[in-house]
Design goal:
Length: about 325
């Protein structure tokens, strides 16, 4: 391996780790806010299922569609190690900045924006480097993912409320606290299987560019295993500022609503993973939380907070692209 390829792989694992603690809030926010688990217990719980997702993707599903989508978001002839390096630096920078501010932005879109921004800059602004067949579905799901999560959560909540209308409140809450362990685990599985694959795609693209492997299918087994391990370790580190935003600022969540939101989030993530679309876990669970809040009344959702989040989502790809472009100009002066 060349030195630059080794540096890229290390940076990719660092990004994967940051993705874990940046997006930990997505997996644990509701289960922490409902006090089913303590924050420490919750991140351990989520980390375990982030890692278990590897075995499901590897041995049960048998393919990594999301990784393939990321690796092919830029046409192969335009992918260089320098492009990938600059994209990763930009993605890491934006992720750390939004984490510091407590903004639950999308690590997925950060990575895609950085990768595309560096590639377009390297091609002197030529947009032909972008494989729009792979990229456009991701862009569409910036809007569709939270809407699907919201709709599914809304329907699930209404179904549960009607089924449990005559249930003893104390006994029902006890059962939903137990069920929230299951729904949170499912959400963590979806998070792990979707998000870890994105870093796999970047590493695979780097290895192909360096001539180390011929294609994604030839990627050595240690790459996916290391990616799922890094995201699990990152999840264990938590992301408490974002937990507060996700778990309390959008709407107050009960155990029943936590089950509905997490189940809706898991369903949406499994759907997008099967379609090979690198959807944002952040967008999905935010939409789901809004969906359960809307079943009470529209005013139960703090729409001002969600509008602020929406702006962060819309700006993530272009800002990451600009950061990658600036990074490419700087790196190009020395390498």
């Amino acid at each position: 391996m060349t030195l630059l390829l080794i540096i890229i792989i290390i940076l990719a694992f660092i990004f994967d780790y940051i993705n874990g603690f940046h997006d930990a809030a997505n997996s644990i926010a509701t289960i922490v806010s409902t006090k089913v688990l303590t924050p420490f217990q919750a991140v351990l719980w989520a980390a375990v299922f982030n890692f278990v997702a590897f075995f499901i993707a590897k041995y049960l599903i048998g393919e990594f569609k999301v990784a393939n989508s990321i690796a092919n978001s830029v046409f192969e002839q335009f992918i260089t190690l320098k492009v990938i390096f600059c994209g990763l630096v930009a993605a890491i920078s934006w992720n750390l900045f939004t984490w510091w501010l407590g903004i639950p932005s999308s690590s997925s879109h950060t990575l895609i924006g950085g990768f595309i921004g560096a590639a377009v800059t390297a091609a002197n602004g030529n947009l032909a480097v972008i494989n729009f067949t792979k990229v456009l579905p991701t862009v569409y799901f910036i809007v569709l993912a939270p809407l699907i999560g919201m709709l599914v959560a809304f329907v699930i909540t209404l179904i549960i409320v009607n089924i449990c209308r005559r249930a003893n409140p104390y006994r029902a809450e006890s059962w939903f606290k137990r069920l929230q362990l299951v729904s949170s685990a499912a959400l963590s599985l979806g998070h792990g299987s979707n998000d870890a694959q994105k870093v796999m795609g970047i590493i695979a693209a780097a290895m192909v560019s360096a001539g180390y492997i011929k294609n994604l299918k030839a990627m050595p087994d240690w790459v996916p295993l290391a990616c799922f391990t890094c995201i699990a370790l990152g999840t264990m580190s938590g992301g408490w500022k974002i937990v507060k935003t996700m778990g309390t600022r959008i709407t107050k969540v009960t155990p029943l609503e936590g089950v509905a939101a997490e189940t809706a989030g898991a369903i949406t993530l499994f759907l997008t993973e099967r379609l090979g679309i690198p959807a944002s876990t952040t967008h999905v669970i935010t939409g789901a939380i809004m969906g359960v809040g809307a079943t009470k009344r529209l005013s139960a959702v703090r729409w001002g907070v969600t509008v602020s989040l929406l702006w962060a989502w819309l700006l993530t790809i272009p800002i990451s692209g600009i950061l990658a472009a600036c990074t490419y100009f700087l790196v190009n002066m020395f390498i």
